[in-house]
Amino acid sequence: MFARLANGNVGPERVIEGQAxxxxxxxxxxxxxDRNDEIILPVALSxxxxxxxxxxxxxxxxxxxxQGSRTGLIRPHTIxxxxxxxxxxxxxxxxxxxxxxxxxxxxxxxxxxxxSGPKTLLLDIVGVAVDPxxxxxxxxxxxxxxxxxxxxxxxxxxxxxxxxxxxxxxxRLAHFRQLAIDPGTxxxxxxxxxxxxxxxxxxxxxxxxxxxxxxREPDSSEDSDFGRLTQxxxxxxxxxxxxxxxPPRAIIKGPGIRHAGAGGVALNPRTGEIIAxxxxxxxxxxxxxxxxxxxxxxxxxxxxxxx
Amino acid sequence: xxxxxxxxxxxxxxxxxxxxxxxxxxxxxxxxxxASRLDAxxxxxxxxxxxxxxATAGAGPVNVLDDKWPPGAIGGEVEPVRxxxxxxxxxxxxxxxxxxxxxxxxxxxxxxxxAYDRTAGxxxxxxxxxxxHVFGPKTRIGFAAGVAVDPxxxxxxxxxxxxxxxxxxxxxxxxxxxxxxxxxxxxxxSWGVSLSNERDEIALTVQQSNAIVVxxxxxxxxxxxxxxxxxxxxxxxxxxxxxxxxxxxxxxVVNHGNWTKIRPYTLYDPLVAAGNEPxxxxxxxxxxxxxxxATTQADAPPLRTIExxxxxxxxxxxLALDTAHHEIFVANYGDSSVLVFGRTAQGDVAPxxxxxxxxxxxxxxxxxxxxxxxxxxxVANYGDxxxxxxPRTAAGNARPLRTVRNAPPETPTCGFTNVxxxxxxxxxxxxxxxx
Lengths: 307, 435
Fold this sequence. Notes:
The complex is a heterodimer of chains A (307) and B (435).
Chain A: E1 2-3, E2 31-33, E3 38-43, E4 48-53, E5 64-66, E6 78-82, E7 87-92, E8 97-102, E9 113-116, E10 124-131, E11 136-142, E12 148-153, E13 164-167, E14 175-181, E15 188-194, E16 232-238, E17 250-253, H1 255-258, E18 264-268, E19 273-278, E20 281-286
Antiparallel strand pairs in A: 2-3, 3-4, 4-5, 6-7, 7-8, 8-9, 10-11, 11-12, 12-13, 14-15, 15-16, 16-17, 18-19, 19-20
Chain B: H1 2-17, H2 38-43, E1 74-77, E2 82-85, E3 94-97, E4 102-107, E5 112-117, E6 132-135, E7 143-150, E8 155-162, E9 166-171, E10 182-185, E11 190-196, E12 201-206, E13 211-216, E14 227-230, E15 239-245, E16 250-255, E17 258-259, E18 283-284, E19 288-293, E20 304-307, E21 316-322, E22 327-332, E23 337-342, E24 353-356, E25 365-371, E26 376-381, E27 386-391, E28 402-405, E29 423-425, E30 430-432
Antiparallel strand pairs in B: 3-4, 4-5, 5-6, 7-8, 8-9, 9-10, 11-12, 12-13, 13-14, 15-16, 16-19, 17-18, 19-20, 21-22, 22-23, 23-24, 25-26, 26-27, 27-28, 29-30
């Protein structure tokens, strides 16, 4: 945990770490519940969701753990919390699902709703956010087909089509991760690490006996997933009612975003700040205009039906 | 490109203005041991454009610096008002070559590999000069983890845990922005690596697949492993450090204790996993050291296991074996200690020695190695920009003999690498990031 005004090469103010925490050293999601003062994390390597007190420090044990055969969790990757309706929303790319739990669920608890199946367009789900005011759950998912932002009714359950989808060539969405929603406007923020799709791994997860037969060795120039400057990522912002193959309505791009890579994004609406994280850096941008309702101010857009 | 340099230099100035120190220069070209760590960042700006990936050509790479995109959008090329980053290397994996008097450590932060003379760290230096420093885009080094050395063929190995799943091999003379002499495609989240000259093999741990994979020493490209150990019986649970013991024909591994039966999850895998295996929920196990027969194939139980509350294991990271004195050394990250066990210990046993305390300078240790020729213990600290050297038998709150520094004394570390998510705590005005 770093102070909001931390700047430069500084250490964290507080760290939660060690065996008793049940954290792993590889986690790609986090949510803070400001109503109940709790920190929520998915642990991909143990199929678990951990909840800590907001002031936890050191080798603190979680106050609740969701894990077990009824949970449906395999590799929970990213997470959001709905403080209005008392729900935790986890996205699991291994189970190919968005799973909704009661906020106070603990142990081997079953999800109260699951969004999963071919109609959902969800596959490699790497970001999730919830807007309890406009009653939507928003997921970011990557596939060889529909790749972008899928918007669902908050109470969606089962194999249901998203009510909105932002993606396609004009969107330039490809290798993105975390989502955040500004509760005041419903604006949707997405952190995109780079504009080239994520490359195929040589091995299928869990199958280490031999490399994929279809794996193609890249040219040396395209081997790294580290961003070349011209193709590095951005933070994209969309209006709450946006859909289709559209470019973002607001963007943070260019060399300034390179250092943070833009794998994750968090918001501080009170100060108009956007926090972008990625690679080995955390960058804070002061852009209060991004927290105003973004209106349509450009030419015609293309509504698309995902294939 | 000039804009790239200027803005990155400005970013560096911003970073270093915070504590009043001078911003390092931002010169390009081949890095030298004394060159600015910012060079590694700058180097990435000069790469050629990438080819489209045919699998996803419709959404191929674009030039985001095109001022015309996105049309009508607000924002654009905005500079941050604040930035938290560590421009210095961090020490992670460590390997000792007693024969040639060389210590090699990986740098997960700036993506490099640093080699030191075994006597390094004698002087009260601000920063210890490495013999060799491999970094830059040609090297293919990403989020580097484990390190191994081959004293016979004079080669150093490191594993990309993320950011390009490769085992990378460099000659001892490699320096600067150079290609590896060979690379091997390996499973994602491989962490530890160990080489046995006796067996002429390399062994690696794979975190998310709870596996050990073994390759011929000279494997490269898409060569497949010749053996693998994985499955419930193997008791591999988020394995990290590894030793391929060619003397006793065993493989030793330290495990964090996390376990899930992972299914394919990438965008290239189908909606339903092939075979549709039965679902098994995730579990937490106690941290452990498991010892496997080196020739084991597939799912077989370990020969011995060290596990339980008396062991004091706590996020064990690096692992080293002293075959001369029959001892196992563990870099115990969770409580900033080094634990020493007998080679054949098993069960819930207390360590034979514990090295821990404020005087030791051990802070978040990740890498560990034994210099059997000179009877010294090396520990790489992720927590404070140092590696510390002790007599092999040091115990308790002992002072190190020497300290190798990759940054000036008291330089803080941010404590994270490869961070991909954030949350904001408005109650405390805090930015939260998972590692």
